[in-house]
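Encode chain A's predicted structure.
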Amino acid sequence: MLQGQKNFIFAVLTFLLGVLFLQLMGVVVKFIGSTYPALQLTFFRNLFGIFPIIIFIYISKNLKNKSLLVKIPMLWVAILRGFFMTFAQFCFFTSLLYLQFATANSLTLVTPFMVALFSIPILKIYVGAWKWIAIITGFSGAYMIISPPSDEVFSIYSLLPLGASFGYGMNLVLVRTFPQNVPTVIIQWYSQLSSIFFTLILVILTFEYVNIQSFNDLIMIIFIGFFGGAGVFLMMSSYRMTDHINLGPFHYFTIIFSFFLGWIFFNESPFDELFPGIFFIVSAGIIIFWREKIKSYNKEWNKN
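Encoded structure for chain A:
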């Protein structure tokens, strides 16, 4: 097996493990979310999730300066990312309380389409006809999942995963505004500190705080931070191993993991809610992957 193939396989396995960890974070949140406010869980997620980032900073071979106080340009953008991260986590954690596990996770798959939309005004990226088709197709799929049957009442909670996708999408777009020489992990470090600050302020202002009820709850809360932080760390690592385009299709393992975990832990099987809308979302992602792959191939061809 060629070295490039080995690197690609390892990158995919690392990416899928990161996706699984983020799914496990959602499972724990759904378990204890009825006991603790979503804002409080968001605060703990960011507080305990900072430790994997610190570990990565100190074991990274690419960082000569291991200081946590490295100066970076556009610090305000990193702080703004922390705000959007807080918003996304709050929306997602709240949605897990009111929606079935697979439904909440599947609706966040519109994040790539949010990225395409926000890239137009922020990054000045041209979006061609095929990407517009993908965006429209993806949102159509999300609408099919959100819209209730004629004999049911619309649930506002179905919009929460879309709010999470908005926050995650803004995070992904804003990180691309930094110069290439600024390490991603340092950007994430300052964004994480920012999110801790914003969630702490919101918890204080809303008085939404419940004392930890038991040692088991404390362990689960720590696991929320660990799974969340480790999941982000693994996904960041996978993107360093191979071209991000190669990992595009593997985002949809979220559906497989969420279906399996929702069935195992919560006895859920929301087939009627997800189909056929999920096919539209997946098809839209495949369109974007296909177009980016062609663009990447053309660039390589022109170089040669």
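The CA atoms of residues 78 and 191 lie 5 Å apart.
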